[in-house]
Amino acid sequence: MRRYFVESSALQSVGYDEQTLTLELEFRDKGGVWRYDKFPKREFNKFIHSDSMGRFFATKIKGNYPETKIE
Questions:
Q1: Number of domains making up the chain
Q2: By residue range, what is the domain housing residue 35?
Q3: pLDDT, mean of residues 63-70
Q4: CA–CA gap between residue 70 and residue 33 (Å, rounded)
Q5: The dihedral of CA 42, 38, 68, 33: what is its sign?
Q6: Residue 42: helix, strand or coil by DSSP?
Q7: Are 13 and 52 in contact (CB under 8 A)?
Q8: Residue 45 in 3-state DSSP?
């Protein structure tokens, strides 16, 4: 999956595959890359247009979708 660099203090890059509803987030400061499954496209659009992707992640994504750390 191709990820795109973003301007965020928490995130380095973001990728999304709308066919598999998969979100990938690369975190700054050695946080690694995490995959979030069953992530709806409408939520992805809200996420990338949010005022703070880090805050959106903490309140709307983390713990709410199946997640896997990938290397």
A1: 1
A2: 4-70
A3: 96
A4: 6
A5: negative
A6: helix
A7: no
A8: helix
